[in-house]
Amino acid sequence: MQFLSDNAAPVHPRLWDAMRAADAPDTPYDTDALSRELDARFTALFGRECAALWVATGTAANCLALATMVEPHGGVICHAEAHIEMDECGAPGFYLHGAKLLLADGEGAKVTPESVAAVLAGITRGVHQVPAQALSITQASESGLAYRPAELAALAALTRQHRLGLHMDGARFANAVAFLGCSPAAAAGPVDALSFGCVKNGGMGAEAVLLFDVEQAQRLRYRRKRAGHLQSKGRFLAAQILAMLDDDLWLDNARAANSAAALVAEGAGERLVHPQEINELFVAMTAPERAALREQGFSFYDWDDASVRLVTHWATDLDDARALGTAIARL
Amino acid sequence: MQFLSDNAAPVHPRLWDAMRAADAPDTPYDTDALSRELDARFTALFGRECAALWVATGTAANCLALATMVEPHGGVICHAEAHIEMDECGAPGFYLHGAKLLLADGEGAKVTPESVAAVLAGITRGVHQVPAQALSITQASESGLAYRPAELAALAALTRQHRLGLHMDGARFANAVAFLGCSPAAAAGPVDALSFGCVKNGGMGAEAVLLFDVEQAQRLRYRRKRAGHLQSKGRFLAAQILAMLDDDLWLDNARAANSAAALVAEGAGERLVHPQEINELFVAMTAPERAALREQGFSFYDWDDASVRLVTHWATDLDDARALGTAIARL
Amino acid sequence: MQFLSDNAAPVHPRLWDAMRAADAPDTPYDTDALSRELDARFTALFGRECAALWVATGTAANCLALATMVEPHGGVICHAEAHIEMDECGAPGFYLHGAKLLLADGEGAKVTPESVAAVLAGITRGVHQVPAQALSITQASESGLAYRPAELAALAALTRQHRLGLHMDGARFANAVAFLGCSPAAAAGPVDALSFGCVKNGGMGAEAVLLFDVEQAQRLRYRRKRAGHLQSKGRFLAAQILAMLDDDLWLDNARAANSAAALVAEGAGERLVHPQEINELFVAMTAPERAALREQGFSFYDWDDASVRLVTHWATDLDDARALGTAIARL
Amino acid sequence: MQFLSDNAAPVHPRLWDAMRAADAPDTPYDTDALSRELDARFTALFGRECAALWVATGTAANCLALATMVEPHGGVICHAEAHIEMDECGAPGFYLHGAKLLLADGEGAKVTPESVAAVLAGITRGVHQVPAQALSITQASESGLAYRPAELAALAALTRQHRLGLHMDGARFANAVAFLGCSPAAAAGPVDALSFGCVKNGGMGAEAVLLFDVEQAQRLRYRRKRAGHLQSKGRFLAAQILAMLDDDLWLDNARAANSAAALVAEGAGERLVHPQEINELFVAMTAPERAALREQGFSFYDWDDASVRLVTHWATDLDDARALGTAIARL
């Protein structure tokens, strides 16, 4: 019973069908009919004009989006635990040509207007320091917590005031929307760019970069090619993303994952490090307790000395989830 | 009847089967069983130790391989018509952090020891000029011509003498091997790294970077991650590549593509700009002649004012190929 | 008798005086009184608003200026013999983060509207090729020839049409102005940025970057600091530049250098590869002839198999120049 | 009475003399006699073989040195208050092509084996995190404190164990040696590279990069040229550095600066945030107290809400220093 990562989830059958259906001759790169459909579909979904481009990974999505906002001598404010800071092997430094990540604090891996303002307040030495040019936030955060629309509005007010671009890493955006129960637009707030995740939500190898500043799309297309991310059979990436949007599969998958997590959370009770909101749980646990769970057949990652991380996904068996919850309760 | 590009070919059924079979839980990134099989399979295929890593595109494969050989202040000698020079939107400049392409001449988009030596002879100003650190050649070349083993040996002698890395862009390596009728090892020669193409040969979105200097593998893994090319469900890329190798599917596909091209070449006769060797033909043709062919339902790219490019692939219908040959002969 | 390079010339006494005078306490970096004077002085000299910043070298000046015009995925059109292509060890690739130099032809190392248009016409493959974003020309050219105002106007019309930035490498701008006998503004034409050379003209280690798009100045200040070119005692660089402008010392020095070259040119006669315009001559000469001159005590660089390069400077002794002219005439 | 920065100090008369003496014809760049003398002089000074290259600024010195140790996908451990982190506008990101600074703690801006080990211990995620490849320390630190030889040995043991390069930012290395009263070699410890500062110590615009791994010198020469830091009249930089070494002027200047600081420190007494070791003092002071001092004609920088920074230099008038000490004592 695997609770390691939503990365490890199988590909959803409807995506397989869509990919097979895409295996007809069409023009290469992103000139095929499916790829050309993306802009309109996401514009409809978010209710505001956007350009939508596929890439294979979240790292590429995040960095290409940020590259439309940040110059090589600039900086990106993000949480100290953000994926771009902790898990991307310096990809922002590569894609942004040496631009710097400027780290902000915040409970539950969420930045706050105060913590962002504190970073900005530290930039006082003119050309001797890197100027902040963007804020990147993660919806839901690395701790599995979703920004509420009011929180997004407060951050966006700050970024407007300081002329910062606003980027959202949405590797688990679907889970955040499912939890918040609001529209995708409300869950995104007034971001300039959104990395719309699919891989963790039943995809194979496709994420969408959404640019609400559509003027930036051509720049991103050049950068995507230059990074070796313009796949020649891009129709298979477009097919995955479109299948996700059809009949809101992306939300159904996210709801399923969140529900499974809720079953685990019930059993975890007071052990939860953060309230359960999405499909990612952090549960306080001693080493012997971890061993006991693993002996019962549950696999998961150690997070730190005090806690483990448990992740569910669209295909997590609810009985397994219940079993894990019960097992934790019994520890 | 489509002769635009082998990029546009469908995915081979055996690759679909392999990908479906890979859709079982496994560990993420390249830690899965299939990805871990690659080194051994390519080592066996080439008869010398190599590290094999998947990436999604040939551009990424070429640039990541070159990044193991060339420093940011260095240069890469390549043919003036090489894909890395002409078609990758400056990707080498990105991946190599500003390193420079140093352009060599040669008939049929093949460099020669003389043309490479001429580039080297032009580097005389010490630190005022970029030092050459690698030679990148394309097997088969952009003009569809294969380097013979003796040609490879001569180039390798030169690179050894000048301590240059030797990289081979093998986007159509399969077609070259099929044409040469030699072993993969003989068609590669003593290269340090080979971009082993699959996408143009019936793949969906996977190429293999082969490093015969296996010490470089860890460096390339970091660079791959940093470039956003470490896909979390990498098992699907490994599955494609392994399926290609099973029972020499890669060679069968290449032979089929080459055979179709041969049928076209028969009709093209004296119009051939270069002898037909692989699945890519350049055929002298006037504008009215092009129009006439297109009216008969053939699609293809204009190459320049004097000629068109015709490309076949593993799934090209032999009747279509014959029909095109006949149509050209009748012009 | 040294005709190797104007690089090797001594520092003009008035610059020494100015530097000594600058050795009083002032605020560091470019906040001192002298540095703050530069904008106004160059604005007056060129008759249009500009921002003027000092750097130590022409390479830094050229690359920092280009970095205000060209994105990392972009390209700079320049002559195939331009200094940025041939003599800066890939500095443009470093400062522009991998952007590409796109090489144009032209007699005497001068590009023409036709040769620039030919480069532009070759960019046809959308995101697969680097888009041109700037044109960089050298006044006077690497062959010692000056662009006439009408030539500049024709090139500027083309750059405006294609929305390219226009940069001028003015390492020997003073010599060009002295030769043309026109105003600095006319010799610069409608460029967006000019690297205004001092080092070859009697300076020690200061060049001025002039930005006629003054909005770009703050960006360049960040980039200059980031490149380690914001010297803390910048007043000594400003002092050199201001002393050059005082009473048109820069023009007097250039005229002296040009005059010395004219004396050499007289003797060279038919051997001149290009007409003598500035302080740089290319003279056809066999190996034995070169040896004969060197035996007479003249030092100079071999240019290629057919010719040598002879360079004069502000302090070249006119008798030495005459002697060299005579010696060549006697060969 | 100016206590703002040693950056603002005048140039020492013996350096002026040396520069004037260098104003004779010689070959350009670093091929002149003075530049060629540097290796031997520093080898003698440190008692172990080193290559010594001039550059104009400490930022360039630090970054070029680090570029010999760190790959673009690597990381540099340094103190969170290090100059390369706080004051160089992201220059390490530029010169190292996106490599990351990994921040360590430590009292008085000095890292400790424990704080460095803590950074290393946090690198656990394989290719998902940047690997540490170098440690950069500052002698004396940003807080004006010198590493003792035993501290250097302990850090070097750690870097050897983890195969990290060891770089020393020696912008105030002279002041550290003067304070420690040991040999230059002992004050440097077994570093691989040292940025040997001159500008703050009476120089005009020259620092020396010392590479004790002399194999790296040619790489650094390419990188220096590529960064636009190979000045054509490099003899003037070499002249400054050599004059500094003659008769230990560098140590005399540093001792003078340190002595002036000691006079100030006497008056500051308990207000000293750190013990006075070199020419930089941090003194606790309220806003009204600062105003009072400024009214008496003393100029200095606010450091933070609690303290000010006071810096002396080789030419600081000892009466001024005493006066400042007295004024602080009277507050």
From TrEMBL, chains A, B, C, D:
It comes from the Bacteria. Belongs to the threonine aldolase family. It holds the Pfam family Beta_elim_lyase. Residues 2-285 form the Aromatic amino acid beta-eliminating lyase/threonine aldolase domain. Its cofactor is pyridoxal 5'-phosphate. This is Low specificity L-threonine aldolase. Keywords: Pyridoxal phosphate. InterPro entries: ArAA_b-elim_lyase/Thr_aldolase, PyrdxlP-dep_Trfase, PyrdxlP-dep_Trfase_major, PyrdxlP-dep_Trfase_small. Coiled coil: none annotated. Homotetramer. PANTHER family: L-THREONINE ALDOLASE-RELATED, LOW SPECIFICITY L-THREONINE ALDOLASE. GO terms for biological process: amino acid metabolic process. GO terms for molecular function: lyase activity.
